[in-house]
Amino acid sequence: MTNKLLKGALGFAAVSAVALAGGIAHAKDTITIAVPSFLTGGAAGPFGIPAMNGAKMVTDAINAGKLPAPYNTKGFGGATASVIPLDEGGGATKQVAEYRNLVEKRNVDAIVGYISSGNCQALAPVAEELKQFTIFATCGTPRIFEEAARKYVFRTMGHATADNVAAAMYVKEKFPDMKGYTGINQNYAWGQDSWRDFDLTLQQIMPNTKASDKTQFPKIFAGQYGSEISAMSLDKADLIHTSFWGGDLEAFIFQGNARGLFKKKIGVFTVGGTAAYRLGKKLPNGLVLGARGPYGILVKDRPSALNQWFINTYKDIYGIYPSGPAYQYGQAILAAKIAYDKAGSDASNEQLANALRGITFESFSTTVEMTLGGGHQAATENGYGITEYDSENGENVVKDVKFYPASCVLPPEGQNSVDWIKGGMKGAKC
Amino acid sequence: MEAALTILLDGLQFSSYLFIVSAGLTIIFGVMKILNVAHGSFYAWGAYTAAFFIGKFSDMGLPDALGFLIIVAAAIVVGVILGFIIEQGILKHMYERDEVLIVLATFGLFLVLEDIILIAFGTDPYFAYQPMALLDSVELGGITRDVYGMTLIGVAAVVAVGCWWLLNKTKWGTLLKAVIFDREMGISMGINVPLVYTLTFIGGAILGGLGGAYIAPTISVAPGLGTEVIVLSFAVVVVGGMGSIAGAAIGSLIIGILRAIAVHELPQVELFVVFAVMAIVLVFRPEGLFAPAKPRKI
Predict the structure, then answer these.
(1) Same domain, A115 and A206
(2) Quick check: A221 and B224 CB within 8 A?
(3) Which end of chain B, N or C, is less packed with Cβ atoms under 10 Å?
(4) Taking the model in full, what pTM does it have?
(5) Residues A215 and A328 grouped into a single domain
(6) Residue-number span of the structural domain to which A392 is assigned
């Protein structure tokens, strides 16, 4: 009896050892991806909802194997993903608690999303502490990968430095006679970083221009900018820079337009792309418009199969052209697919991170190179154009669009954005 | 000189916006001793209702001037319906409870009403620019000003005069003052205090709704807009003295003008100014600048 038991045990051990050595994997059939985005508050309509729509649309297409080549294999490493939509509102403290809940109690496989720089800034160290594979989709502050090395956290689009260096370069090219500039930006990491990078870049490339000493930093979601518009109207600066987004962006455009602000000053809107389709004729002509990279209205005419699929599918489902956030969330979901396809649907957080680190991939509208922040921060081109209402087709278009390569508007790997700009943007390949 | 005129107009415009909203808040507190956090929701509902119907009427090809009528109607409809339901359905049953509990109840109501906005109107912002576009703009103090924004000063003046007239020149005002002064004595003198409470709450709600409805054409009406305004309104009411209409007017003026000066001269302290004023007033006069006198009961 004892011999039989011993033989049985040895046999089981041998089979188990062979199985392990042979690497018999238990590939998952399903994975869960938490997708936080603003579903309530002023940022929901122009930012959060299109972002969520983009994420869902791309996830559904991946699950069904309906993305154009080379992404036409079914699923995430073969697994079907279910999206858990989450509201990003409520501030960073609430988001940190929600994030811990997602990882520790709901055991999600991946977290893909986040729009607010404040939230990303607060969540990056938490993600590292919990060793959770996380892709930031939209948030812009460069500090996330410049202030600390990350192992599990990624961002699949360029950061605010690219937006503002590109804006400054576009201004230099299109408005060489500009003498002075001012700005109105929200008073938190995103707004402050955006203004800093724009200001520092102009100091380098247009040294004869002067920044106003009365730049405005109203509270985020303030909604009322009457006094700020007066102050900027009286300011001698002939250009206004803003990184406003969401409801603040649209309120500022309404109020500024009613007071003729954009007839007297050049308006540079680094995130203006989200308003382009929504405001229609109410968007003034002549604004310098960015979309935080090659997304939305700036790439509407790009003919690649991936881009045309994205535009047409989105328009079919949601009845409107996709804006930047839809692209950015779709791009982040696509990056998750690439990581899972490479590492397998049962991959650990570490294996997923290894799979995404440092890769280059074709996204819907551009090439994404994960070359910064130790391979965790994407570098993409960035572009701007000038708004014009196309009365024939009844929609806004952008003219004089110019794209700047990533190597022109982002610091080389290992360099801090501020130091790079202050040092004259050495190594920039424009 | 041009800068001074601009600062004055900016300050008056912002003060007017603050006053219209905080007048309702302070009236409700003065009469009912309720710190109504849900007041921010009246503002938001006013804005949404006005923006929704202005947009609808415009789509139907009706004259844009109707927008002004819609603004007033939206304020009244929102104030009457929400004010009546909340006062009769919830607050009426809590008057004998601790004041802190009532504040918590109104906070809960605020959250519920915000969520109902999402269900009723969705997450997409509404635009109701037509009334603002109708009034065009003028050159004043060297800059362009939209006439619609300046009419806000007139609306605030009408509200202020209306409140003064109601309180000081009508029988209804005398009854209100009696209830404010001593509720129990008012009841013993035969005043229908429950009715006074209901009408006061509805009146305050209408003012909150009017603030939102009037501001709607200048903003992107989006979820969450009631949160910002309630914080500012509390600051105004605390500075002016809780329960005082004159206090709300003076508090709005102080905060509005100082904020405008900060935006023009030292933008870095714009956020700080509003709450610095409140802190200073609380240190030296905790009851606010114009708090109504309280009877000493023996």
Answers:
(1) no
(2) yes
(3) C
(4) 0.85
(5) no
(6) 161-301+381-422
Q: Sort B168 into a burial class: Cβ within 10 Å, 0-12 / 13-18 / 19+.
A: exposed
- Say yes or no for a CB contact (<8 Å) between A215 and B267: yes
Checking if the pLDDT of B133 tops 90, the result is no
B residues 206-225 lying closer than 8 A (beta carbon) to A: 215, 218-220, 222-225
Q: What is the pLDDT of residues A270-329, one digit of tens each?
A: 999 988 888 888 899 999 999 999 999 999 999 999 999 999 999 999 999 999 999 999
Determine the distance from the C-alpha atom of residue A234 to the mean position of all C-alpha atoms in its chain, rounded to a whole number.
34
Report CB contact under 8 Å: B271, A187.
yes
- Are A204 and A274 contained in the same domain? yes
| A134 and A271, same domain (yes or no) | no
CB atoms within 10 A of CB A371: 19
β-strand partners of A211: A181
Instruction: Residue B75: name the closest of B232, B219, B212 by CA.
Output: B212
A284 and A314 share one domain: no
Judged by a CB distance cut-off of 8 A, whether residue B267 touches chain A is yes
Residues A48 and A67 in one domain: yes
What CATH code is carried by the domain that includes residue A320?
3.40.50.2300
| Average pLDDT of the residues in A402-413 | 95
Residue A407 domain-assigned (yes or no): yes
Q: How far is CA A24 from the centre of its chain?
A: 37
Cβ neighbours of B116 (radius 10 Å): 13
Residues of chain A with C-beta less than 8 angstroms from the C-beta of B3: 234
Distance of alpha carbon A17 from alpha carbon B20, whole angstroms: 77
Among A42, A227, A279, whose Cβ lies nearest the Cβ of B222?
A: A42
Shared-domain flag, residues A186 and A276: yes
Residues A377-406 pLDDT 10s: 999 999 999 999 999 988 999 999 999 999
- Beta carbons of B144 and A255 less than 8 Å apart: no
A150 lies in the same domain as A178: no
Q: Is A225 helix (H, G, I), strand (E, B) or coil?
A: coil
* Pairwise CB contact (< 8 Å): B222 & A45: yes
Distance CA B274, CA A110 (A): 43
Please tell me the total count of domains within chain A: 2
